[in-house]
Design goal:
Layout: H1 3-17, H2 21-34, H3 39-52, H4 56-73, H5 76-87, H6 98-115, H7 121-137, H8 141-155, H9 164-188
Length: about 190
């Protein structure tokens, strides 16, 4: 990072620490325009807009841009970042246009499925996990369960490294959650 970037980063974190979200947003806008390749700034920008300021209108525009950039960059980190930004279960998107999110999720998923042909098992498991969030949220729990089961299979086995353990744990937890959801839904029908 050069001196100007370091100064900008300090300005961003000072505003965030002070919970001065308008100043943080302004600094993040500057950061994203100056260094559009920095995923962390883009994620922080989205978080500030959507979670802190609850600005769904500008947030929707930003997430559309995020999804477009992720596909253009053809980058695992950007694609996963966009999927998690759109479909992380801890976020409240009740005021966000569902059709807009669904459309972005479908487009990202199509791109991810093409990309999955060229990546290792761990990366495929991460992609399937991210896509499962999308499908579960938009009512296709059976596909979400299938994706997580495949992901678990990809990271299981004695030859897998310790780096797989956190992902395996997350996947098993999600699988249990989705299967519970499936069982409750079946009981109600």
């Amino acid at each position: 990072m050069d001196a100007a970037e370091q100064l900008l980063i300090r300005r961003i974190w000072a505003a965030i620490d002070a919970k001065d979200w308008k100043t943080a947003l302004s600094a993040l806008e500057d950061g994203v325009s100056v260094t559009p390749e920095r995923l962390a700034l883009f994620e922080l920008y989205a978080h500030t807009l959507l979670d802190e300021l609850q600005d769904m209108e500008d947030g929707c525009v930003l997430l559309r841009e995020f999804a477009r950039l992720a596909i253009e960059k053809d980058s695992k980190d950007w694609l996963l970042g966009a999927m998690y930004q759109l479909f992380e279960s801890s976020r409240d998107y009740s005021r966000f246009p569902a059709g807009e999110r669904s459309s972005m999720g479908k487009e990202l998923s199509r791109h991810i499925l093409t990309l999955c042909q060229r990546v290792d098992a761990h990366s495929r498991a991460e992609y399937y996990n991210a896509m499962a969030n999308f499908f579960h949220e938009f009512g296709n729990n059976d596909l979400a369960v299938d994706l997580v089961q495949v992901a678990v299979t990809l990271v299981e086995g004695p030859s897998q490294e310790e780096v797989e353990q956190p992902l395996r744990t997350q996947l098993l937890k999600r699988l249990a959650e989705y299967k519970c959801h499936e069982a409750v839904r079946a009981a109600l029908l």
